[in-house]
């Protein structure tokens, strides 16, 4: 006897709220009948475009310029990443170390905001020039790391924000985010995600009105069951928003008595049957992450996804326009 396990990460799911009603209206798929039989999925509109980290492929990520450029490039929602400085200021930054993207060094949580504010968030951002050489256009035109408050102020209130709480320990970050969302009355426009259950659990306990992503494990387990066993035992509750990478590299681990075998595969688990499973209990909406080509956009649209997340709204929009595909406005 052997058992198969699946390793992966960054599986996302969300629940619907008023701030997302225009996403909900964008693409409604047919539901399963009461007996649980799977029926064809029919998409009614092109999915909306979410800019990952504000469009990390177009502009230095998680900057005010990235967020405004993404909207100008046709994004309709924004993914942002938040951490907290040593003195409790929530700022928009993703990597563990400041050296990954800026001209600074060390963990952001070990640095006070005054010093973080002096750093260039675009320092590592590069482009290939016409001569094929790598250029760093923002080293002479630095961009600051914005605070969460500044990021929210820079974005129209009707633009949904997906906020990734990206730091441990979770308590200082959660408390800092709560303070800003309270003071800016932004709870209805922000949906919170974290890979750390400690962060979402604490947020749920502290602010019951918080719009939280469902556990990534729940989403992953449903997809694995649908893909490997053809099962739909635990579809999400009505009102859930679910999201995960459209294509995902995973490891299939088969364990034996004397060892294990590991195979790396690309999971293309969003089949019509999987989509129908997710929607079988009622009004559930789906977001596909990692959509960078017109082909994947069209596939997600045909499956009935409500929104797609991309690193480059500019490139995706241009490619769609070139191929004449319709895009939600």
What are its keywords?
3-stranded antiparallel beta sheet; GP_PDE_dom; 9-stranded mixed beta barrel; 329 residues; 10 helices; EC 3.1.4.46; Glycerophosphodiester phosphodiesterase; glycerophosphodiester phosphodiesterase activity; TIM Barrel; disordered N terminus; alpha/beta
Write structural notes for this entry:
- The protein has 329 residues and is α/β, with parallel strands linked by helices.
- The chain has a domain at 48-212 and 290-327: Alpha-Beta Barrel (TIM Barrel), CATH 3.20.20.190.
- It contains ten helices and 15 strands.
- The chain has helices at 21-24, 64-72, 113-116, 148-154, 170-184, 197-206, 216-229, 272-278, 294-303, 313-323, and strands at residues 3-7, 12-15, 48-51, 77-84, 90-92, 127-128, 134-135, 161-165, 190-193, 211-214, 240-245, 248-256, 259-267, 285-289, 307-310.
- A nine-stranded mixed beta barrel has the order 2-10-9-8-4-3-15-14-11, surrounded by four helices. A three-stranded antiparallel β-sheet has the order 1-12-13, with no helix packed on it. The chain has a two-stranded antiparallel ribbon with strand order 6-7.
- Helix 5 packs across helix 6 and helix 7 (216-229) crosses helix 8 (272-278).
- The longest helix is centred in the middle third of the chain and has 15 residues, at 170-184.
- It is globular, with a radius of gyration of 20 Å.
- The protein starts with a strand and ends in a 6-residue tail after the last helix.
- Residues 1-43 have low confidence and may be disordered.
- It holds the Pfam family GDPD.
- This is Glycerophosphodiester phosphodiesterase.
- Keywords: Hydrolase, Signal.
């Amino acid at each position: 006897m052997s058992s198969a396990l699946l390793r992966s990460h960054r599986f996302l799911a969300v629940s619907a709220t008023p701030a997302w009603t225009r996403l909900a209206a964008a693409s409604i798929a047919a539901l399963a009948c009461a007996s649980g039989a799977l029926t064809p999925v029919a998409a009614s509109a092109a999915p909306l475009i979410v800019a990952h980290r504000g469009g990390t492929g177009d502009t230095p990520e998680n900057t005010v310029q990235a967020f405004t450029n993404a909207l100008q490039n046709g994004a309709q929602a924004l993914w942002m990443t938040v951490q907290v400085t040593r003195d409790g200021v929530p700022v928009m930054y993703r990597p563990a170390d400041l050296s990954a993207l800026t001209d600074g060094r060390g963990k952001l949580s070990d640095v006070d905001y005054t010093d973080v504010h002096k750093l260039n968030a675009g320092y590592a951002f590069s482009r290939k020039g016409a001569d094929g050489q790598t250029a760093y256009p923002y080293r002479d035109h630095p961009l600051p790391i914005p605070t969460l408050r500044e990021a929210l102020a820079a974005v129209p209130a009707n633009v949904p924000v997906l906020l990734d709480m990206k730091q441990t320990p979770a308590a200082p970050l959660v408390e800092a985010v709560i303070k800003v969302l309270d003071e800016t009355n932004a709870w209805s426009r922000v949906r919170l995600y974290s890979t750390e259950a400690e962060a979402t659990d604490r947020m749920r306990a502290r602010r019951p009105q918080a719009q939280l992503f469902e556990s990534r494990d729940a989403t992953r387990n449903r997809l694995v069951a649908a893909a490997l066993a053809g099962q739909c035992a635990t579809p999400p509750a009505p009102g859930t928003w679910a999201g995960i990478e459209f294509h995902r590299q995973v490891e299939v681990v088969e364990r034996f008595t004397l060892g294990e075998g590991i195979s790396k595969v690309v999971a293309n688990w969003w089949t019509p049957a999987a989509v129908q499973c997710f929607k079988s209990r009622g009004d559930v909406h789906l977001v596909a992450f990692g959509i960078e080509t017109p082909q994947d956009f069209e596939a997600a649209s045909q499956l009935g996804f409500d929104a797609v997340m991309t690193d480059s709204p500019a490139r995706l929009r241009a490619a769609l326009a070139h191929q004449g595909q319709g895009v939600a406005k």
